UniProtKB/TrEMBL annotation, chain A:
SUPFAM superfamilies in the record: Nqo1 FMN-binding domain-like, Nqo1 middle domain-like, Nqo1C-terminal domain-like
Job of this protein: NDH-1 shuttles electrons from NADH, via FMN and iron-sulfur (Fe-S) centers, to quinones in the respiratory chain.
Domain NADH-ubiquinone oxidoreductase 51kDa subunit iron-sulphur binding: 340-385
Protein name as annotated: NADH-quinone oxidoreductase subunit F
A GO term for molecular function: FMN binding
Cofactor: [4Fe-4S] cluster; FMN
Pfam families: Complex1_51K, NADH_4Fe-4S
Organism the protein comes from: Hymenobacter amundsenii
UniProt record, GO biological process: cellular respiration
TrEMBL record, chain B:
InterPro entries referenced in this protein's UniProt entry, alphabetically: 2Fe-2S_ferredoxin-like_sf, 2Fe-2S_ferredoxin-type, NADH_UbQ_OxRdtase_ferredoxin, NADH_UbQ_OxRdtase_Gsu_4Fe4S-bd, Prok_molybdopt-oxidoreductase
Sample GO molecular function, one term: 2 iron, 2 sulfur cluster binding
Ranges where the 2Fe-2S ferredoxin-type domain occurs: 2-89
Domain 4Fe-4S His(Cys)3-ligated-type: 90-129
Phylogenetic lineage: Bacteria, Pseudomonadati, Bacteroidota, Cytophagia, Cytophagales
Annotated PANTHER family: NADH-QUINONE OXIDOREDUCTASE SUBUNIT G, RESPIRATORY NITRATE REDUCTASE
Descriptive protein name: Fe-S-binding domain-containing protein
Homology family: Belongs to the complex I 75 kDa subunit family.
Pfam families in the cross-refs: Fer2_4, Fer4_Nqo3, NADH-G_4Fe-4S_3
Iron among keywords: yes
Keywords: 2Fe-2S, 4Fe-4S, Iron, Iron-sulfur, Membrane, Metal-binding, NAD, Translocase
Compartments reported by the entry: Membrane
Cofactor: [2Fe-2S] cluster; [4Fe-4S] cluster
Organism expressing this protein natively: Hymenobacter amundsenii
Length: 446, 334
């Protein structure tokens, strides 16, 4: 049984209230940081912890914090990215609705470390009920003196606001998020300048995922070195994995990084295997935008080693035989899943969510969706398969923000690993277009 | 000052110059195309991705290449930067892809489009595109919308460069009436809701449009541009500088536009009175035929030889330079 650093008390009755949260050791990190540590020491602890951004990219949080520009007389901001909208990822929603004070505690400690006096939680528009929970918790924190002027007599001031978005996926991209927070259309900005230099209202800004910020109190309480002992190599600490799809026990699991993927899927402590006694076919390991992997490659790397739930092990083999840990949205698909239909579904999402600012993504996402729609509905041609790969390649790397890649990777990977299934959709188009049709594997002779 | 090497040509430019503007100082065929960037419009650029170039070395301090292609219109130069544009095949391949992307939802109605002949997309596709398409799906279409009595928006042709949005923002000084609605390939330029842009300078959105999405209703379907003669003229205008180009067919002024430089960028905004109302020769002081620098079918009634920039010639091998002097096939620029 792995250690639970974030979710240890998640099922305690009334943990969303300040009193119960404090009884279970809440807000210790605020007292410790504000009374005994300088902001630089807090940043140093986070650096030592090796914490990596939990939103998807896995960039070291401490390093991100140390890049923050600190010009004289210019306010700085910490912004929490709670715009969780990647298909397959639903960890932050749960964390915020159950443990709102953990996020607020992290925001206070983090803001102190960065010298920010106004901080924001940008929450996805659909999560209005979570917004209300957070606002209630923030009011409690103000009343208890953890927010506002002169927090705990330390002379440090902090105001914390929750701001709901309109429910656009693109606003999870940090610069689009900042535009939206400023009240503008959520279009990603051209970079550079990066938010660490010119972010919110052109002031130095750090944007962190909910889970990254929630890990800060743990790191400050236990010490960065202690935190870094959990995990394997450069993947330290624990990670929330939101497991969904054809699993016996889907749900949110806090795992120690380094857990073998096989154990995560099949052990009763975690997902308990595939439902209805079926076989695993494929896994999307980190939210819909990471490359899909077939069973053989998700359990073992191409070199035959056990695949672990770490940033490095999952990306072993690059995109040819590997994938990414991403945001931890773990989607398992059983043998009855049609990969073409699934890819079309993902593609439809990215087509719908592209902001339309830069041409490769605006036009390419729609194009891929239409081609996949045709393939799935029995009107595909053999050359469409290579066309998909080619369009994905034209988008990848040529866009303003990573949404282009997020749309291109799943399509390219699906064709890479399941090409026969795409071909079967062309050769047996009538059969494949039937609702619930499943690729029978061995039948393909062409 | 920063010294950069662009396609093997060295040039020194002030710090803060973008790669695209550095290339424009060199001039000639090495200049990356730009479909959305527009120098007079603050904030424009970075969207169409037509100007992507390879940075083979970031700077003298950090000579590592940049991992991705960068948009040359918004990336500023660093001392010692080495940029590859026309000499890098991957750049040209990506550009071909961008043309394809821009054209999949663009109607190929050039034969009936007023912009044909002076269309940035037409030029871009002609230089970098392929003659066939792999796109078989239905294209997106929109109804035509009138933005006021003088401007028509045909959204089907729009490539969402945002130039008109920045123009409207700039002339309206913060009062936003013209923007983008919707997302992805369903995004559309809109004046909420079919409002008119109530501003004396609103006609400039027509000039900045790289395609035929925003057209002058006093000019629509009057003539093909190459059958008209551009003539520089000016008048005393209380609102703008009054320097314009009149487009004549016979003795008739068919339309009035602002003066543009060789990259199609407006030199001075003109007001709606000059653009839409003054259509008599007697309203204007004629200066003479307008010179069209751009490679285009329209020039002052004759085709001109391309001008080769001196700094390009300096970089040519000595033997080629000698040959050029003895036997000049091109008109030499200064």
């Amino acid at each position: 049984m792995g250690r639970k650093l974030l979710t240890e008390h998640i099922n305690v009755e009334g943990i969303e209230t300040l009193d119960v949260y404090r009884k279970h050791g809440g807000y210790r990190s605020v007292e410790k940081a504000l009374k005994t540590m300088t902001p630089e020491e807090v940043v140093e602890e986070v650096k030592k912890s090796g914490l990596r951004g939990r939103g998807g990219a896995g960039f070291p949080t401490g390093l991100k914090w140390s890049f923050l520009a600190k010009p004289e007389g210019v306010p700085r901001h910490l912004v929490c990215n709670a715009d969780e909208s990647e298909p397959g990822t639903f960890k932050d929603r749960q964390l915020m609705s159950k443990l709102p004070h953990l996020l607020i505690e992290g925001m206070i400690t983090g803001s102190y470390a960065l010298g920010a006096n106004t901080s924001y939680i940008y929450i996805r528009g659909e999560l209005l009920y979570v917004l209300r929970i957070l606002e209630k918790a923030i009011a409690e924190a103000y009343a208890a003196g953890f927010l506002g002027k002169n927090i705990l007599g330390s002379g440090y001031d902090l105001d914390l606001y929750v701001h709901p978005g309109g429910g656009a996926y693109i606003c999870g991209e940090e610069t689009a998020l900042l535009e939206s927070l400023e009240g503008k259309r959520g279009n990603p900005r051209n970079k550079p300048p990066f938010p660490a230099v010119q972010g919110l209202w052109a002031r130095p800004t750090v944007v962190n995922n909910v889970e990254s910020i929630a890990a800060v109190p743990v790191i400050v309480n236990e010490g960065g070195d202690e935190y870094a002992k959990i995990g394997v190599g450069k993947s330290t600490g624990t990670k929330l994995i939101s497991a969904c799809g054809h699993l016996k026990q889907p749900g949110i699991y806090e795992i120690e990084l380094g857990l073998p993927v096989e154990e995560f899927i099949y052990s009763d402590e975690y997902c308990g295997g595939i439902w209805k006694g079926r076989e695993l076919k494929a896994v999307v390991a980190g939210g819909s935008s990471v490359p899909i992997l077939p069973k053989e490659l998700i359990l073992k790397t191409a070199a035959g080693e056990n695949r672990l739930m770490t940033y490095e092990s999952l990306s072993d083999g690059g995109f040819v035989t590997g994938t990414m840990l991403g945001s931890g949205g773990f989607i398992a698909m059983d043998e009855t899943t049609c990969i073409v239909r699934n890819t079309w579904n993902f593609s439809r999402f990215y087509h719908h969510e592209s902001c339309g600012q830069c041409s490769p993504c605006r036009e390419g996402t729609g194009w891929m969706e239409k081609v996949l729609h045709r393939l799935e509905h029995g009107h595909g041609r053999m050359e469409d398969i290579d066309l998909l790969v080619s369009v994905a390649k034209q988008i990848e790397g040529n866009t303003i923000c990573p949404l282009g890649e997020a749309a291109a990777w799943p399509v390219a990977a699906a064709v890479r690993h399941f090409r026969d299934e795409f071909e079967w959709h062309v050769t047996h188009s009538q059969q494949a277009a039937q609702p619930g049709a499943v690729y029978p594997g061995a039948l393909v002779t062409v | 000052m920063a010294k950069i090497t662009f396609d093997g040509i060295e040039i020194e430019v002030p710090d803060g110059t973008t790669i695209l503007n550095a290339a424009r100082q060199i001039g000639g065929s090495i200049v990356p195309p730009a479909m959305c960037y527009y120098t007079p419009l603050k904030g424009s650029g970075g969207k169409c991705r037509a100007c992507l170039v390879k940075v083979a070395a970031g700077s003298t301090k950090d000579p590592r290449p940049m991992p991705k292609l960068v948009a040359s219109c918004i990336t500023t130069v660093q001392d010692g930067m080495v940029v590859e544009n026309t000499i890098n095949d991957s750049v040209l391949d990506v550009r071909k892809g961008i043309v394809e992307m821009l054209l999949i939802n663009h109607p190929l109605d050039c034969p009936v489009c007023d912009q044909a002949g002076e269309c940035d997309l037409q030029n871009f596709a002609f230089e970098h595109g392929v003659s066939t398409t792999r796109y078989q799906e239905e294209r997106r279409t929109f109804e035509k919308i009138d933005i006021g009595p003088l401007i028509q928006l045909h959204m089907t042709r729009c490539i969402l460069c945002y130039r008109c949005v920045y123009t409207a923002d700039q002339i309206a000084k913060g009062d936003r009436v013209h923007g983008v609605l919707g997302r992805g390939d369903a995004a559309e330029i809109g004046t909420y809701i079919e409002n008119i842009i109530d501003n004396d300078f609103s006609g400039n959105v027509i000039d900045v449009c790289p395609v035929g999405a925003l057209t002058d209703k006093t000019w629509r379907f009057k003539s093909r541009v190459w059958f008209t003669k551009p003539v520089n003229a000016h008048r005393d205008c209380p609102k703008c500088a009054g320097n314009v180009v009149l487009w004549y067919k016979g003795n008739e002024v068919l339309r009035t536009t602002a003066r543009k430089d060789q990259y199609g960028e407006v030199k001075e905004w003109i007001c709606n009175e000059c653009r839409f109302e003054k259509k008599e020769t007697s309203d204007w002081t004629i200066e003479g035929p307008a010179h069209i620098d751009r490679s285009s079918v329209i020039s002052a009634n004759h085709y001109e030889l391309p001008v080769l920039n001196q700094s390009v010639i300096d970089d040519l091998p000595a033997s080629t330079q000698r040959e050029l002097e003895q036997n000049p096939p091109l008109k030499l620029g200064s």
